[in-house]
Amino acid sequence: MSGATLDMARIRADFPILHQEVRGRPLVYLDSAATTQKPQAVIDALVRYYTHDNANVHRGVHALSERSTQAYEGARERVRRFINARETKEIIFVRGCTEAINLVAQTYGRTKVGPGDEVLITAMEHHSDIVPWQMLCQHVGATLKMVPVDENGELRLEQLDTLLTERTRLLAVTHVSNALGTVNPIKEITRRAHARGVPVLVDGAQAMQHFRVDVQDLDCDFYAFSGHKMFGPTGIGVLYGKAQVLESLPPWQGGGDMILTVTMEKTVYNRLPYRLEAGTPNISGAVGLAAALDYLDSVGREAIAAHDQELLEYGTQALETVPGLRLMGRARERSGVLSFLMEDVHAHDVGTILDREGVAIRAGHHCAQPLLACFGVAATVRASLALYNTREDIDALVRGLHKVREVFA
Ligand SMILES: Cc1ncc(COP(=O)(O)O)c(C=O)c1O
Q: For this UniProt entry, which segments traverse the membrane (predicted)?
């Protein structure tokens, strides 16, 4: 087993779903960039919450509502600590990374971006960090610009200073590419954007499960991520925003909890973070996310990051032994993703044959069509890693790929 610093038998025992057969073979789960599996601690936290504490938050005068409110607000504080935000009001609970980005586009975007302005993104963004900006730019008459990528899958940052103009109102950039695994130098990018007075939104969907993220150190203005990609439940995510930036945003959705008073003439809005959280929130999701953060910290984020790097290195070398395989993305800093093509075999066929071997991977454009277009391909095979993966999982993938070659020989 891999993982010099992780007790892999113990970690794998924490994830009940991994211990099953799929199509008569032991499951090898290599699709964690799509969603991670959940440790027993997260499943237990959800069961505990619904068994003992379930009630609505913020409005009840009874004991259960108090407990539920404490659990929900406790989760907010847990997230604050996890990403080292200054204040809990900087943590807005949303459905996921996609909703977090749309929130910024619909509030910050609609008020701060006007006709003739520019929004800068990069060619390696997930569709969730492209489409909301396209929609915004079309709506307000602004222009969407892209930082290109090079053949290794790194951003061409030498062009950044020219692409940032006096009309740029926001730079949105992914921390880690979901299609290639490239890790972008966010601190440096933010420094350069801020030098031009441009705020920065970071899409952290693929970063959070792999390494420590410190929003104060990065100095970004917004950081968006999803619970389900870091061992938490689906339907919960976080938008972090610097307090002074969030304070300047208008409300987004109208409804309960985001108000102080309502008359037929006028509404007085609540303070942060409630102003941006209309309606009954995903309380159990927040509780489950807090349990996932506890789990990550109990394993140790530095040990997880080291395991990721070791497995990525092992996987890269192992895949290079497969004849006719072309690895995509050779960035100097990578995390969690092995993306590749098999000569003359469509990615979906590779995926189907691997599935028969019990190996779950993703095949397709990974919601990053502009990035794949830069490489002149429509689809790749993506094996993505999490802390529960081992060298044996990679070996099973490589064995499966040899089967693919036999079938298509
Ligand atoms: C880089 C990146 N950004 C955003 C998203 C969207 O996340 P969600 O679907 O959880 O909102 C994903 C999901 O694949 C992603 O990989």
A: none
